Each structure stands twice: as structure tokens, then as C-alpha cells.
Amino acid sequence: MLEKDVEARGLWSSKFGFILAAAGSAIGLGNIWRFPYTTGQNGGGAFLVLYLICIILLGLPIMIAELAIGRHSRRDPVGAFEVIRPGSPWKLIGYMGVTTGICILSYYSVLAGYTVGYIGKSLAGNSTSYEAFTSNPLVSIPLFLAFIVITVLVVQGGVKNGIERWARILMPTLMVLLVILIIRSITLKGAGEGLAFYFKPDFSKVTGSTVLAALGQAFFSLSLGMGAMITYGSYLSKDDNLVASGCYVAFFDTLIAVMAGLLIFPAIFAMNMSPDEGPGLVFKVLPRIFGLIPGGRIVGAFFFILLSIAALTSTISLLEVVTSYLVDEKHWLRRKAVWIVAAVTFLLGLPAALSQEGMVPWLAKLPGLGTSFLGFMDWLFGNIMLGIGAVFIAIFTGWVWKKEISSKELREGFPGFDRIAPVLFFLLRFFCPVVILIVLFFIFKAGV
Ligand code: PHE
User: Fold this and answer.
1) Which of 78, 122, 291, 407 is the most buried (most CB within 10 A)?
2) 3-350 in CATH: which number?
């Protein structure tokens, strides 16, 4: 692609802008909603250890691979595989990513809608329970719709003006507020037990499904396995160091997740709640923490504003994957692409919005599966499909893409790349595919 076409397609305005936008994609409900409840369901400390291992040994190499594929091809996930291996079935991985993107976006926006609702709920000091709140379709559906529309409005603005500008201010503010809340949580009476649950691993609780949960959580949280980082990498300039950028993003993402655990678990134990409550966990605990802080209503509202924005920078990246595909490959206008995808997402998300207890019983407990429709979507797309996508991306980068070319791409902006190349290629060629395939195999063998 010519320099001027690359410019016209859009580039991040600076290195820092990219890191913030990619961290914005990574940091979201995955860290603050999904990580604590998954950790709580999987026994605490041991899960944390597995999760950290997955981030370093599986997440980081795949993150770097995705960024390299994106920057090299300067295309959306489908086009990227087509540029590197023209006419091959590899572009199916791109199609799979685009589909997974829409599916995650659908239920993710439902949850993001709850987050927005909790802003008002905190401000008003309204004590409706989580269950009552989420099972009222007159509240949850308009909020869900509103969230999709906001996402569309930002993505319509394109890379620089839309996505980057938001991430720049808001991510750092979220971090500061988390620190303040953690201090409150760990100074509660009885907090020590929560800290022990979170930091003292008990490996006797680890099973195959714990390992899948850790692996899925690592990919979900880093936005990997579906081409989000291919898309964001496609707007990176050749001066950027892909390895360092990937490390920064993974570091901040993991830091926020670990901080969220540090906020939630001491409070859960101090309040005699159970850590394995499931998806409602964070929405139930947080308001109680705010209740213990002077000016709690305002602090609570402010926290949910920031969380909504963190969710927004993630939904933006999910929508951007699909949009970039329609713009690059189908030559649709950006404006048309975003609205049509939004309409499809809304329809797909409706059953998830209606799957809370008390609304549509068979959606709340899918026949034969026992989970809610939302839980099922999160399991299928947020764990399994991301895992499958990640395996193929590792195999593609390790075995199919010519090593001289991928290494050349990675050397741009990082002249010292050859020093770490053996480790990276070992992980991509052998470690990632073998480990992920073993885990997926056991899951399929054990059934849903
Ligand atoms: N990483 C985001 C989060 O943690 C979710 C996400 C997954 C975004 C996959 C893009 C792609 O909230």
C-alpha cells in the first residue's frame, strides 16, 4: 500500500495514542465484571496464578502476532489473511473473528447498558436489587440500545478523532479511582479473609474447566483471538515497536484486572457474601462498598461512569473489527456499515437482554445447558471461539507466514527483535497451539 493510502485509511496520531486505544479495547467489563466473578467461581488464588501464566505465555505472543499481521497487511482481519496468503482458506479465520466480534458485542452491550443504568441508580440512592433491575425489560432494553448507539456515534468518527481522543483522558482517571476504592475495601473489618482467598492459591481446586476459564479470560481480557488487535495494529505506523506496545497493553490490562480483584474480594468477605455468586457479583458488591464511603452516591455514580466508558472503548473495538471489514473488503461507507452492524447487533442481543431470571424462563435457563442465554453466548464466543481463533493465529504466524517476512515486520521499530525471536517463535509454533488444543479437547470431551 502506498504511503498516502495508508494515511487516508487512518493512522494513530502517536505511539501513546495507540497504546491508550489498545489498552482501552483490552480494559473493560472483562477486567472489572468478568475477571472477579470468574476468579470467585474458580477458587480464587489458584485461578489468579493460572491467569497470569496464560497472559504471559499465551496472551503476549498472540498479541504480538496479531499486531504484526495487522500492521503488515494494513487491512481488516479478513483482508489481512488474504494479503499474506492470497486465495487460501486462512481468511476463514478472519470471517470467524468478525462473527465472534458481532456476537460478543451483542451481549457485552447488554451488560454495558446495566453499567450505565447503575450510574443513575447510584445517584438516586435507589436500592432495587440487581435481579429486579436487570429483569425489567423496560429498563434494560433501552439502556442496551442506547449503548449501541453511543458506540456507533464514536466509531463513525474514525480512528483518530473518535477512538483515540476518548481513551486518552479516561483510562488514567479510572485507575486513580480504583486505588481510592481499594484502600476503602482492604481496610474493612474482615478484609483479611478476602485477601487470603485471592492471594493464597489452593491448587487442589484446579480442574480442566478452571484452566479453560483462565485461558478464555486471558484472551477475552486482552481482546485476542478475533482480530481486534489485527485491526488496531493495521493503523500502527512502522516506527512503533510492536513487542513493546503489546507488553504495555498486557501490563495495564492485567494491572486493572488484579486491582479489580483487590477491590472486590476483601469487600465480599467483609460483608459475608459468597465469592461464587456468578455474573451479578460485581453489581451486587460495589454498591455496598459505596454505601460505606462518605459521598458514596457521587463516588458510585462516578465509578459507573468510568466503567461505562471503559466498556465503551471496548465495544468501539468490537464494532471497529466488523466495520473495518465492511469498509476495506466490501467498500461500504463507514457510516452505512456502522448502522447496519448496530441493527444486527441489537437483534442478536435481545435474547441476551431477555435472559435474566423472571423474564423469559427458557432463555434464563437454556434447555439442556442450564445456563442463561447470556451466559451461553459468553461461554461460546468469549471462551471457546476466542480460543479457537487464537490457535489458528498462532499456527498461522508460527508455521504459515514466512518467518523472514514476519521477522522483518517485527524488526521495524524494534531493531533488537532477533534477540527475542527464538522465544517468540517457540511459543507461537509449539507452546500456544499445543496447550490451547489440549484444553479445548478436554472441554469438548467433557461436554458443555
Ligand atoms: N477486552 C475487552 C474487555 O475486557 C472485551 C473484548 C473482547 C474487546 C474481545 C474486544 C475483543 O472488556
Assistant:
1) 78
2) 1.10.4160.10
